[in-house]
């Protein structure tokens, strides 16, 4: 799954790193009407938000900090700051860590706050632990396949085919037409369509496939092998090179923006940079395994904004004003404009760029998004997700079979239980 930095890689278990909180506390690093804000995106992405809030609240200063690298880097830094008593007043709380944050009493209960009234039910559900809502998720994300219209036309196509086998045929035709790079995935997002397929197959069940695995009612070996075998066709049919095991997110994005890559997993956050690159592009569906399958994509509600449970007085009032702004129409428009996130609240209608219309209609309007890790044990989600990428790298290199990769995930799950 490729999401901005393309989502969580393996990190040390949240429980292990957060254990020292009881002793160290999680005190704030600011005073008075200055509040600190720690986020998992760049200052440039948050500039419209910070500028808009400053204009509306000139008496409140926000000190912004972030971290470089993938989502896993943010999670690890967040854990380090908490255990060192340096937690920001407002911070982004990844759903993978939320249960442990609640357990260690470092997040404020937001359930009955006035700024929560228009937050969507799906977003609230992801932010809920023990019946209470602990973070404010205002946006949602979904993967889609970005495609270069000019390159696809060389093979006689004007959009992404409906099924996986048809997609593979298109990739072969692209190679035959002289397109050297028909499709690439980054090493931290290998297996991009797999979650879409699992989402579709889970939709008619009382428990998702990954919930069944997490509850030990099924296994990766029984459930994932067939999906990994389908994904491996990319290499068996020589339409994607094993070189992807060494490609980072930015490298894949650069290949597409330069006009050399025909198709890549992407999302709404890439609309602005691809337009700036001047290429002729659009976003399309993720091909499903069978004709007639409902369209699904990897995706979920975004991580929510949380308030440090240790702050009070002016700092708490200022933090609450900041979340009120983030949930307002002005704040939602600012985060969409700056970070390329799609607002998902009860009252705000997002203006969607025409290049993203097909995925928006297929996934956002229907709710057909799926994130496998939400079905796994809470304290092992990040580590297990990173392991899926590691195993698929070995499949790509021909070191193990898809069945062995799935079996190895079962072994990893046992160490986390």
UniProtKB/TrEMBL annotation:
InterPro entries: Bact_solute-bd_prot1, SBP
Alphabetical keyword list: Cell membrane, Lipoprotein, Membrane, Palmitate, Signal
UniProt entry tagged with the keyword DNA-binding: no
Pfam families in alphabetical order: SBP_bac_1 (PF01547)
Matching SUPFAM superfamilies: Periplasmic binding protein-like II
Signal peptide residues on this chain, from the entry's feature table: 1-25
Protein name per its UniProtKB record: Carbohydrate ABC transporter substrate-binding protein
Organism: Bifidobacterium polysaccharolyticum
